[in-house]
Amino acid sequence: MQSSRLPIVLVVDDEPMSLQAMRRILEEDFTVLTAENVADAERVLSEIPVQVVVSDQRMPDITGTEFLTKVRQQWPDVIRIIISAYTDPQDLIKGINEAGIYNFIPKPWQPEHLILTLQNAVRLHALQRENELLNVELKVTAPQVDDQLKRKRAELKNRHHFDNIVCAEQSPMKGICEHVARIAPFDIPVLVTGESGTGKELITRAIHYSSHRADKPFVTENCGAMPVQLLESELFGHTRGAFTGATSERIGLLEQADGGTVFLDEIGDTSLEFQVKLLRFLQEGEMRPLGSNRSRKVNVRVISATNRNLEEEVREGRFREDLFYRLAAVPLHIPPLRDRSMDIAVIAKSILQSHMVAYGKTVEGFTQEALNCMSAYHWPGNVRELENEVRRMLVMADSAQLGADLLSPKVLKGACMENFDDTLPEMFDELDDGSLKQRVEILEARILKETLIRHRWNKSKAALELGLSRVGLRAKLERYGLDQDKLNHS
User: Fold this and answer.
1) Can you list the domains of the chain with their CATH numbers?
2) What is the pTM of this model?
3) What is the arithmetic mean of pLDDT over 264-273?
4) Residue 126, pLDDT score
5) Is 229 left (phi over 0), alpha (psi -120 to 50) or beta?
């Protein structure tokens, strides 16, 4: 049963299978309500305090844009998101202008991206609500606003300082932070590369808030999976009537960030057509909104990021070489979490502390066994995946410490089956060497360990699952040196 404290998300789609798929993905983090038609959706919105509504664009009687325009008029506080396999830029721009959509999620959607987008939307809803309450309660005056802005800027500078990037003393991130701290004060373009979830935006924010632009805006734009015209409209803005659906003037993000920093994420996913226009802006420092015949001077620092190998993209002709050198005056690579396993325990503890405050739930920490398993897992989703795992363990916990049994099956099995599992005796380090008998013994030892951890070292339950007697299980544990106390302190 979903906790009533979870944020409420309404998903509207005429395809039942799509609704079921999204419910399965989201129900761990949100209270998910579904509607197969607009009438049911409006009934839910009128009866339940929904924070976010996600609507499919293509529905039988009405488009998602038209439906969300009605939502904006009747329930303006609800954050509105479109999801669609069709990327007609006219529809999307109309959605931004008329429906005031917060974000567009392309199909097929990625679970991690979907969850992250909704989490950010929920945070925005909470901030809007908090701001409204503060304005009513305090009857904010201009001096109070100024004081609030100063305090928020000081808080942001402190929060995003390089010293607050969590890593171990011997981590390669230490050297990266020291290197970036030296170049942060200077207006030089930085290209941050690394896998998704490694913390590229975290580094980018630290650069901004350590520069002379720290008191000016920091804006971000995800350039991936976005049509050229929509991306241009987002960055450069447009005039009224510039294209079908442009019913009002829009100030672009570049102009909004004047004096500050613009972070262009997933820059490697942009088209050659857009790259030409971005290069022209970087060379001239001027931008021209769509439909306008007048250029505007804009002074921003551009920091970009990608999970692609841009040098390879240049060689393949998918990315302009001149733009690459404009963006990559200082190239910076963030290593994946699997290449800095010493950071895993430190980051996990930091995540736990912050979410104990957010969830109002206190535990003592992780067991050593849980930390060993987390350090052995390869974390393909990097820090973002680790954060989701820690949050899940915290909400599932029913004891003072978070044990390895709370880890999701893929993490637990992955940790126990990886070749670099150093909590087993040395004789089991390599699976690709030795005779068939030796390799089978390695697999058997790892399966035993994973099963015991999952059952909290209850030998009766483990033996029952594996089809062994307690005597037989005990003999195998002695043979392979699988002693709980020894493994927990290794």
Assistant:
1) 8-130 (3.40.50.2300), 159-335 (3.40.50.300), 339-488 (1.10.8.60)
2) 0.60
3) 93
4) 86
5) alpha
